[in-house]
């Protein structure tokens, strides 16, 4: 496998300002594609080899639809952006996306889970449920993104690279202010070691190089240790670990005795469903969630219609 090719791939990804996670995923699937074809160079391959690879993923490996789509996107990026040969008319066996309704917790179940969480993890879950944030949106919140006066968050560069405004529940304000004080403590500590610079989006980092050392750009939910940035090699304090929060949520769900497949994203589903139950307009919910298409938000109306009182069973009339 040509190491020079992967260097070109990484360089092009960074020019496009994609996240490090996307870079890691794209490189993984491009390498897997090349290994599948016995290290044949992509320049010597085309549609047929791509179709074979995608079909193998769907039929033999039986990967999830989203996994196959990610692999496909990685290969499309390779040919379009790196090799300058956009692929067309790819007709492969695609993994089928099952039509699933989201898992939603009742209000009582939400309370039970929250009782089993403590401190920082509890506050983050309260924002997942109380503001309808995605997991990474919570973790990437910066000090400057909170507006206490208007009780809202500005979610920067969310899914689809869009900004939006969502609500800040008044019940979490005291704890959120305490969390910001904790971030200030870490900031002052890191300042002593000259490690208080935080990661910023590339364009802003170049335009405002001094802002990376300012307090208002710091993450609200910070890691408890410093780490090395894999791209720049700089020693920095990154945000709280997503896997650590996911583990704590799983443990809390188990402790609460809830027999549902619950993830961090379940609280966002519950946020939307409960707002609709309370009579809020679906377009308002769409804006708070940051959905581009109203049909995405409408899935929660299906959850409501499937609920207990929507249809009476004939058994109850016997």
TrEMBL record:
Record flagged with keyword DNA-binding: yes
Record InterPro entries: CB (IPR044068), DNA_brk_join_enz (IPR011010), Integrase-like_cat_sf (IPR013762), Integrase_catalytic (IPR002104), Integrase_integron-type (IPR011946), Integrase_recombinase_N (IPR010998), Integrase_SAM-like_N (IPR004107), Tyrosine_recombinase_XerCD (IPR050090)
Native organism taxonomy: Bacteria, Pseudomonadati, Pseudomonadota, Gammaproteobacteria, Oceanospirillales
Keywords: DNA integration, DNA recombination, DNA-binding
Sequence ranges assigned to domain Tyr recombinase in this UniProt record: 100-313
Protein name per the record: Integron integrase
Domain Core-binding (CB): 1-83
Gene3D superfamilies: 1.10.150.130, Intergrase catalytic core (1.10.443.10)
KW Coiled coil (keyword) present: no
UniProt similarity note: Belongs to the 'phage' integrase family.
Pfam family, any one: Phage_integrase
SUPFAM superfamilies: DNA breaking-rejoining enzymes
